[in-house]
TrEMBL record, chain A:
<dbReference type="Pfam" id="PF00005">
    <property type="entry name" value="ABC_tran"/>
</dbReference>
<dbReference type="InterPro" id="IPR017871">
    <property type="entry name" value="ABC_transporter-like_CS"/>
</dbReference>
<keyword id="KW-0067">ATP-binding</keyword>
<dbReference type="GO" id="GO:0005524">
    <property type="term" value="F:ATP binding"/>
</dbReference>
<keyword id="KW-0547">Nucleotide-binding</keyword>
Automatic annotation (TrEMBL), chain B:
<dbReference type="GO" id="GO:0055085">
    <property type="term" value="P:transmembrane transport"/>
</dbReference>
<feature type="transmembrane region" description="Helical">
    <location>
        <begin position="65"/>
        <end position="85"/>
    </location>
</feature>
<keyword id="KW-0472">Membrane</keyword>
<keyword id="KW-1133">Transmembrane helix</keyword>
<feature type="transmembrane region" description="Helical">
    <location>
        <begin position="106"/>
        <end position="135"/>
    </location>
</feature>
Automatic annotation (TrEMBL), chain C:
<keyword id="KW-0812">Transmembrane</keyword>
<keyword id="KW-0813">Transport</keyword>
<feature type="domain" description="ABC transmembrane type-1">
    <location>
        <begin position="54"/>
        <end position="234"/>
    </location>
</feature>
<protein>
    <submittedName>
        <fullName>ABC transporter permease</fullName>
    </submittedName>
</protein>
<feature type="transmembrane region" description="Helical">
    <location>
        <begin position="58"/>
        <end position="82"/>
    </location>
</feature>
Automatic annotation (TrEMBL), chain D:
<dbReference type="GO" id="GO:0042597">
    <property type="term" value="C:periplasmic space"/>
</dbReference>
<comment type="similarity">
    <text>Belongs to the bacterial solute-binding protein SsuA/TauA family.</text>
</comment>
<protein>
    <submittedName>
        <fullName>Nitrate ABC transporter substrate-binding protein</fullName>
    </submittedName>
</protein>
<feature type="domain" description="SsuA/THI5-like">
    <location>
        <begin position="45"/>
        <end position="262"/>
    </location>
</feature>
<dbReference type="Pfam" id="PF09084">
    <property type="entry name" value="NMT1"/>
</dbReference>
Length: 259, 258, 254, 318
């Protein structure tokens, strides 16, 4: 269980205080898939970095399985938005996936198996020897996902991972993430600014206000577990949920402007 | 096929023409200080391929190699230390900028006082000149490690040696290589200069001896040998760079095409 | 904040060099304390010979730099504008460039003795390549679309150089000047030191000959200050010349 | 190729600095004094020419002398040949080498000679006080510092080694300027030094001891150095050379006869401290070159392998 309790983050620079996150509290059940959406610039990335232990909060706490997060905790993986910068350009694809396992002290044979499996799972079974920059953007993000899979995390955080890939690739990757989640049984927190994506992917959607960020609404997505791009998106319930999230975000934007 | 021929022709054409011009223009030269190229080429072999190769050329190159290697280790090591700490960086930066700005040859007389006139002094001279470009470029490179990659290492708990090897050093390697290239030309300069000051062997020493003994064709051959060595070492450097930085050039080309 | 820390660093460095010889960590004879060096420096600054030497050094340096830049730009634009010439000269340039300029020392001494001319030859030789290579990069960097536009508007050759080649190459030229200024200073001082042409380098040689260790250090400090000045001035010039340019170019391994 | 390129590159540099360069090929205007530049080394040995200029020995022969200080004889020879200087001062080995390599040089006057007195010369082969080296023969396998190699110094040291019964080929030489030799000797970086005045005084001051007077060992009353000019000046203006030689001879004789004035003038063109100048041993300044000693040095240089073939000494001598 991932618990965010009273989280606040204030950036102070050049004498100006910018309150990025006001007061955020929510919980993510172990093994669940939660999407976080909010208007652009609402501090989604800040929230995710606090959860990952990459950024110390100004106030409040993040707790993972009962222990407070003060630095990157064990068993947590992050897939960053900037795939081009999160992969080591000097390592081949397989070595990129392999490096965290080496750091974790996994033995060679096991590492090999995990790397092969993870790359197969994302459909890159034949790209072991390529360098990341020889791949397209979508494929690079697949490598980043494979790296997370091979790491076998208990919690997987994804920070707008598909913001920079084209629409068709994006649909494929969404389905990939769903299947990975179902197979691995990880706790998945998925940050996005895309409302369709959030509703399509998550079991729950947490909507945020403009900064200073608060939780605007916590919505359960009662769509069936088996989802696919055609039928799920055609489902009237999908349209309804989507409309609700959309309205909430619009409201948050307006409030944000009014302030 | 024709494309290859054209390229070879373009690469060799001008050098061949220039050498030919030199050859024929100097053929009948009676000017003592501009001997015919033919004479220079004739003395080149006997002058350098023999005892002098072992007694002068190799010791010079050995000192260069030793000094350069030490400067690499020292420069990269200190550079990583300084570059990865904001405070250390802020404190040392002006001092380093100053030390780097000192033209390295002026340190020769000082180092002679301190380290005498033997191999130690000459290696120290080479280190003292080569270390700065490497050090400062390493600092800049380490400083510019990508934030996302840094975060990636943190979340995946990649630490210690693995982190130094696979994140810090590799990130900084394009800049380290730039520094190393600058250091190489400084090193060659200092190899020669240190031998012009006090020596009983070495390339620089021998060339000066030829000058003092008025053996002008031999002196020219020494100048040419130094030039060839410079060219050879820079070619060698390119081969190594190609190995070390293939990922860098590849990713840059990929970026440009996108 | 950083400036303060840097100042503290400089002071600390000076203090270290003051204390180390005083407490006997290093022999004072070879490592005079900072105060001695600075005192000596103050003494030197009061002497005419010092300023004459400074003048000679600056003259050699700037003259060499100016000649190298002028030659580098003219030759670079001439070679770079004609693709065939560029292709035909590239191997020669790649060969001549790494030739260490100090290899020419015996030659210039024999030909010109201990004169400023000798040192100038070294300076120009070394600095020329820095400029030339940058200019060639700059000329090669011309946007093909801009080139086609210029052609379609039937700009003549001179207008193309004036409005297309030159503005594109300018940032590279400035970078070349910055690199050349450093190299030129090194070779100026080296020439004076080794060849004995008049200037600061020769003063260092004289100080060495008479065993005046503090004077040697004082003069080395002066050369360091020159180096810093050269860096600061040329970097500022570079920023000024490039401020409009999309990429403040870093030196990339080419 | 490089040279041509360099020449091409440097044409503007040369133009720009023509003012500081040489002005060769000047022709004497009737009535006006001939302007000549003489390349000298700032050491004791050239006191006569400074004295001669001061005393007007050149002026009265219608020669306007400018003295230019250079690093060593090896640097002066090319400058004289290229016309940058009209006359120069150099040790005789450098001249013999230059001559044998085909450089058109010609001696015009004696320079200076050793005192001829063993143990009381103006130059000496010295070791430090605690050195086990007793004679020059003990230098086999040892390192000796010489200001520059391939000149009179290493030839003379080898002569001392030979005289003491040692094998001169087994002595190693390191090039080190005179001023640094005392310190190098004291710190043990070299086993012996060959120094001239005033550095002889410095080594004596630190307790060093003389093991040989190498110039004395080389030849009796050895001519160490001489003034020379180029064949071109000689053929274009033989009359000027003649006047220069006469002025030089008068200067040499005067200096030889007035050592106190010589000492006084040394203080004016060197930085040697007054009390040291008073103590140094002065060379001898005979007016005529000791021809036999030049021949002897030529023979030694041949034996040492410095010269490839016997020198035509007669062509070089005035």
């Amino acid at each position: 269980m991932l618990t965010v309790d009273g989280l606040g983050k204030v950036y102070a620079s050049h004498g100006r205080r910018v309150e990025a996150i006001g007061d955020l509290s929510f919980e993510v059940e172990t093994g669940s898939f939660v999407c976080i959406v909010g208007p652009s610039g609402c501090g989604k990335t800040t929230l995710l970095r606090c959860c990952a232990g990459l950024l110390p909060p100004t106030s409040g706490t993040v707790t993972l399985s009962g222990s407070p997060v003060t630095g990157p905790p064990e068993g947590l993986a992050v897939v960053f938005q900037e795939y081009g910068r999160s992969l080591f350009p000097w390592l081949r694809v397989a070595d990129n996936v392999d490096l965290p396992l080496r750091a974790a002290g996994v033995d060679r044979a096991e590492r090999r198996r995990l790397v092969d499996e993870a790359l197969d799972a994302v459909g890159l079974g034949d790209a072991h020897r390529a360098y990341p920059w020889q791949l397209s953007g979508g494929m690079q993000q697949r490598v980043a996902i494979a790296r997370a899979i091979a790491y076998q995390p208990r919690v997987l955080l994804m920070d707008e991972p598909f913001a920079a890939v084209d629409a068709q690739t994006r649909a494929d990757l969404e389905d990939l993430v769903r299947s990975v989640w179902q197979r691995l049984g990880v706790t998945l927190v998925f940050v996005t600014h895309d409302i369709d994506e959030a509703v399509y992917l998550g079991q729950r959607v947490i909507m945020l206000t403009s900064s200073p960020t608060r939780v605007a609404e916590d919505l359960t997505i009662d769509l069936p577990d088996e989802r696919d791009q055609l039928t799920t998106r055609g489902d009237p319930r999908f349209t309804e949920l989507r409309g609700r999230v959309y309205a909430q975000i619009q409201k948050a934007k307006l409030e944000g402007k009014a302030r | 096929m024709t494309a290859v021929l054209t390229r070879v022709g373009l690469a060799l054409g001008l050098p061949v023409v220039l050498v030919a011009v030199w050859w024929f223009a100097s053929a009948g030269s009676t000017d003592f200080f501009f001997p015919p190229l033919r004479t220079i080429v004739e003395v080149f072999g006997p002058t350098w391929f023999g005892e002098r190769l072992v007694d002068d050329v190799l010791p010079s190159l050995g000192r260069l190699a030793a000094g350069y290697a030490a400067a690499l280790v020292l420069g990269v090591g200190l550079g990583v230390l300084i570059g990865s700490n904001r405070w250390v960086r802020a404190v040392t930066e002006p001092v380093l900028e100053f030390l780097r700005a000192i033209p390295p040859p002026v340190l020769v007389p000082v180092l002679m006082l301190v380290a005498g006139i033997g191999n130690g002094m000459k290696i120290l001279v080479i280190i003292s000149g080569c270390v700065w470009p490497i050090l400062l470029n390493t600092v800049a490179g380490v400083r510019a490690v990508d934030g996302v990659l840094e975060d990636t290492c943190r979340t995946y708990r990649i630490r210690g040696t693995l982190r130094w090897r696979h994140l810090v050093l590799r990130s900084a390697s394009p800049q380290i290589v730039t520094g190393a290239r600058q250091a190489l030309s400084v090193g060659i300069i200092l190899m020669v200069i240190s031998e012009m000051f006090a020596a009983s062997s070495g390339l620089g020493f021998t060339v000066i001896q030829f000058k003092d003994g008025f053996q002008i064709p031999e002196m020219w051959s020494g100048v040419i040998l130094l030039g060839l060595l410079g060219v050879l070492l820079s070619m060698l450097f390119r081969v190594v760079e190609h190995q070390v930085l293939s990922w860098y050039h590849g990713s840059r080309t990929a970026q440009k095409e996108r | 904040m950083n400036a303060l820390l840097g100042l503290a660093g400089l002071l600390g460095f000076g203090l270290l060099l003051e204390v180390a010889p005083r407490v006997g960590l290093v022999p004072e004879r070879y490592f005079p304390p900072t105060s001695t060096i600075l005192g000596e420096l103050a003494g030197q600054v009061g002497e005419r010979a010092f300023w004459v030497a400074v003048g000679d050094t600056v003259l050699t340096w700037l003259l060499g730099l100016a000649i190298a830049v002028a030659l580098g730009v003219v030759v670079g634009v001439a070679i770079g504008s004609v693709p065939l010439v560029r292709a035909a000269t590239s191997s020669t340039i790649e060969f001549l460039r790494p030739i260490p300029s100090v290899a020419l020392i015996p030659l210039v001494v024999v030909l010109h003795g201990s004169t400023i001319t000798s040192t100038l030859i070294l300076v120009v030789y070394a600095a020329f390549w820095q400029v030339l290579v940058q200019v060639l990069h700059g000329v090669a960097d011309i946007d093909p679309v801009a080139r086609d536009t210029a052609r379609s508007y039937r700009l003549d050759r001179w207008a193309r150089v004036r409005y297309l080649t030159w503005p594109t190459a300018l940032p590279y030229v400035v970078t070349g000047v910055r690199l050349a200024a450093t190299v030129a200073l090194i070779l100026t001082i080296t020439g004076e030191l080794v060849i004995g042409s008049p200037g600061l380098g020769q003063l260092i040689a004289t100080a060495r000959q008479s065993g005046a260790v503090p004077a040697m250090y004082a003069l080395i400090v002066v050369t360091g200050v020159f180096g810093v000045l050269a860096n600061v001035v040329t970097r500022a010039a570079e920023r000024r010349a490039l401020h409009w340019h999309p990429s403040m170019r870093a030196e990339v391994p080419a | 190729m490089r040279r041509h390129l360099a020449a091409l590159l440097l044409a503007p540099a040369l133009l720009a600095t023509a003012a500081c360069g040489s002005d060769e090929g000047q022709s004497p205007n009737a009535g006006e004094a001939d302007k000549v530049t003489v390349g000298v080394i700032p050491i004791l040995d050239v006191a006569p020419i400074y004295l001669g200029v001061e005393k007007g020995f050149f002026e009265k022969r219608n020669i306007d002398v400018t003295l230019e200080q250079a690093e060593g004889g090896a640097a002066i020879v090319p400058a004289v040949v290229s016309g940058q200087y009209q006359f120069g001062f150099s040790n005789i080995v450098s001249l013999l080498l230059a001559h044998s390599e085909g450089l058109p040089v010609k001696m015009v006057s004696n320079g200076n000679n050793s005192t001829g007195v063993d143990g009381e010369d103006f130059a000496a082969l010295m070791v430090s006080a605690d050195s086990p080296i007793e004679t020059a023969a003990d230098l086999e396998g040892r390192t000796v510092a010489a200001n520059t190699l391939q000149n009179i110094v290493d030839t003379a040291v080898r002569a001392s080694v030979r005289k003491a019964g040692g094998d001169p080929t087994k002595v190693k030489f390191t090039a080190l300027p005179f001023p640094e030799q005392p310190a190098a000797l004291a710190s043990g970086q070299v086993d012996a030094v060959f120094v001239v005045e005033p550095f002889q005084q410095a080594v004596l001051g630190q307790g060093g001891r003389t093991i040989a007077s190498s110039y004395v060992d080389t030849a009796p009353n050895l001519t160490v150095a001489s003034y020379f000019t180029s064949q071109r000046i000689l053929s274009e203006n033989p009359e000027l050379v003649k006047r220069f030689t006469q002025a030089m001879q008068e200067s040499l004789s005067y200096a030889n006869g007035h050592p106190d004035e010589a000492r006084a003038i040394i203080g004016s063109y060197t930085n040697i401290a007054r009390d040291v100048v008073a103590r140094v041993t002065l060379p001898k300044w005979p007016a005529e070159v000791n021809r036999d000693s030049v021949q002897r040095v030529a023979d030694l240089a041949l034996e040492d392998g410095l010269l490839k073939e016997p020198a035509k000494v007669g062509d070089l001598l005035p």
